Amino acid sequence: MVQADENKKTAIIRLYGSLNDFIPHNLRQRSLICYFKGNPNIKDTIESVGVPHPEIQLILFNGEPVTFNKPMEQDARISVYPFFHNIDVSYVQLVNPKPYDELKFMLDVHLGKLAKYLRFAGFDCLLIPFLDDHGIVSEGTRDNRIILSRDIGLLKHKRVKYGYWLRSQMPEEQFKEVVQHFRIKEQDLNPCQRCTTCNGKIKSIEKYDIIEDLKPGTKKYFDEFFQCQNCGRIYWKGSHYKRMRQWLEKTMISVYGK
């Protein structure tokens, strides 16, 4: 927020639900005085408060729904809402009518562990090392991917359509956040269909085709194998697989219960 002066106009903004995560604790759940010059659009004004536009579904401007392009006005009263999951708002003009086309993700370069979790669960999850913000936005928007990031500024980029700011810094909690925010259910999971290293698709392969690549213990105790069609990595249902399946089941129970 900035200090008022005689050349600035004012408006009142109220953030609802999870959008309060983007402002200091002492300002949450209350009306905020916003100062602006000229006639910026409402998207830029709300983002100046701290909220990235991909997390907004509905904006009421003096009680009426508007788009992100609505010009600001002196003394406007603005209510900003996150995505509605339990209330039907399809009859209202929404700034983000649909939060995503399908669950395909683009992660920034600091989320490698989360990428592995999402891939294990079966989700198409792209992470390209050493890519800068411009590259992440370009790759993500080209294929209508949901951009996941801990960088709020990245999600404010005007080209970003789908995105979510991860509140936690812990990968397991981040995975849980994604499950909760995108309402991922057990039937949406498809474990062991993606390579956790490169995101390539995994297919079954005969043991005799890869037997020379197997370690003695693996060769002796396992007969069912899978291989990434992109990088060639070999998978089997050993102890690591069992631990990951148990972790995934516990995570879903912690979100939705039994």
Oligomer: single chain
The number of E-state strands comes to 12
Distance between the termini: 44 Å
Portion in beta strands: 15-25%
Tell me, briefly, the overall form: elongated
The H-and-E topology, N to C, reads as EEHEEEEHEHEHEHEHHEEH
Which stretches of 5+ consecutive residues score pLDDT under 50? none
List the strand order in the largest sheet. Answer: 2-1-5-3-4
Report the major sheet.
5 strands, mixed
Mean pLDDT: 92
Helical amount: 25-40%
Q: So how many helices?
A: 8
Please state the structural category: alpha/beta
**Over the alpha carbons, how many angstroms does the gyration radius reach?**
22 Å
Description:
With about 260 residues, the chain is of the alpha/beta class. Among the domains are: about 10-80, Ubiquitin-like (UB roll); about 105-190 and about 245-255. Helices cover about 25% and strands about 20% of the residues. The protein contains 8 helices and 12 strands. A hairpin with a 2-residue loop joins strand 3 and strand 4. It is elongated. The model has no long low-confidence stretch (mean pLDDT about 90).
Write a brief caption for the model.
Helices cover 27% and strands 19% of the residues.
List descriptors.
12 strands, 8 helices, about 260 residues, five-stranded mixed β-sheet, about 20% strand, elongated, about 25% helix, Ubiquitin-like (UB roll), four-stranded parallel β-sheet, alpha/beta
Secondary structure layout:
Elements lengths: L8 E7 L15 E6 L5 H8 L8 E4 L2 E2 L11 E5 L22 E4 L4 H9 L3 E3 L6 H10 L3 E4 L2 H4 L7 E3 L5 H11 L20 E4 L1 H4 L5 H6 L3 E4 L5 E3 L2 H18 L2
Parallel strand pairs: 1-5, 6-7, 6-8, 8-9
Antiparallel strand pairs: 1-2, 3-4, 3-5, 10-11, 11-12
Helix pairs in contact: 2-5
